[in-house]
Amino acid sequence: MNSARLEDMVKGWFVGAFNPTVLSTDACEVAIKHYVKGDAEGRHMHKVATEVTAVVEGEVRMCGRDWRAGDIISIAPGESTDFLALTDAVTVVVKHPGALNDKYVIEE
Predict the structure, then answer these.
(1) Which end of the chain is more exposed for a tag (fewer CB within 10 A), N or C?
(2) Measured in Å, how far apart are the chain's first and last C-alpha atoms?
(3) What is the DSSP letter of 81?
(4) 108 domain residue, yes or no
(5) For the domain that residue 20 is a member of, what is the CATH number?
(6) Is residue 107 in some structural domain?
(7) What is the model's pLDDT at position 44?
(8) For the CA atoms of 27, 66, 104, 11, what is the dihedral angle to 10 degrees?
(9) Number of separate domains in the chain
(10) 35-94: pLDDT as tens digits
(11) How far is CA 17 from CA 34, 36, 48, 52, 77, in A?
(12) In-domain check, residue 29
């Protein structure tokens, strides 16, 4: 058995080739991310991984659209998005395959 606390993980990532992690794998990456209203990430893309985001609580803006609890957004390699927490929010993010250093910032 292996156990950990989410707050000890880097930015909520608990599965993947991270340190620390609960399951070390290159197959995928999984995170539970907590945001405060106004938290944002700039436009970026992945060349290798598909990124799937499930909004568990709150409302967020991604890909120029507003999403709420229950929505699931899948972003294919080469597609770009930015991120804005419209309210306090919780998301689950899965990247497949796991691909460290696969985040490319897009200058606007």
Answers:
(1) N
(2) 46
(3) E
(4) no
(5) 2.60.120.10
(6) no
(7) 96
(8) -60
(9) 1
(10) 999 999 999 999 999 999 999 999 999 999 999 999 999 999 999 999 999 999 999 999
(11) 21, 26, 15, 18, 19
(12) yes
Dig out the tokens for 49 from the structure.
């991984």
**Is residue 22 within 8 Å of 15, Cβ to Cβ?**
yes
- Which residue has 């992690």 as its token pair? 21
Average pLDDT over residues 88-102: 96
Q: Would you tell me how many other CB atoms lie within 10 Å of the CB of residue 79?
A: 12
Q: What gap in Å lies between CA 82 and CA 63, rounded to an integer?
A: 6
Q: Residues, the chain, total?
A: 108
Evaluate whether 85 touches 36 at the Cβ level (below 8 Å). yes
How many Å apart are CA 105 and CA 35, to the nearest integer?
Answer: 20
Cα within 13 Å of Cα(42), Cβ side: 6
Q: Which domain holds residue 72?
A: 6-97
Domain-embedded: residue 17: yes
